[in-house]
Amino acid sequence: EYEIEHPLLDVDKPVTYGPLDLQDFYFEHKRQQSEAMKNALDVIPEVLKEFNKTFGKKHDLLEEYKLEDADIAIVALSSTAGTAKVVIDQLRKDGIKAGLLKPILFRPFPKERITKSLSNSKVVAVLDRAESFSTMGGPLFNDLRSALYDSKKKPLLVNYIYGLGGRDILPEHIKKIFMDLEDIKKTGKVKSFINYVSVRE
């Protein structure tokens, strides 16, 4: 008799895949998921501490780079943050106080940490490698704007959407963004709150 090595349905080990949650309990389950995400904000730092100790790492909810005295800053995820660091080092040599915030945890959104990290910056560009088609900017921009809404000390935020379809973002693109921020800092005027990087018009 043929026996499947990894059966999807095994009566000795019952599991559920993609269950249908009907209206009688759907709302309650979604509420439980929301509570679990809130609780995760307390649990994740403890897990990170244990992970860092075990493996000799220094992971955190976010990474700050030359942000403590930065007048202008970029918020960027993943490898884009590495490119931004190179540009920031060049700008610092030219006397421009530029910095970077790299969120590592996106869900649940670490609102308090991000708000504190950006509290000294005057103008911040949020880089999104996604378009939400809401006419209100990309997903990271919207979460960040929402997180900062109640803060008394908050920077002016502008959004830059880049890299759709895998298009590269180059150091010169990031330098141009920082120059835009410098101009906004000096004039107090924003030409557009939602901008597109390296796109053919």
UniProtKB/TrEMBL annotation:
InterPro entries membership: PFOR_II, Pyruvate:ferred/Flavod_OxRd, Transketo_C/PFOR_II
Ranges in a coiled coil: none
Gene3D superfamilies to which the protein is assigned, alphabetical: 3.40.50.920, 3.40.50.970
SUPFAM superfamilies the UniProt entry points to: TK C-terminal domain-like (SSF52922)
Location of the Pyruvate:ferredoxin oxidoreductase core domain: 70-174
GO biological process: response to oxidative stress
Name of protein: Pyruvate:ferredoxin oxidoreductase core domain-containing protein
Gene source species: marine sediment metagenome
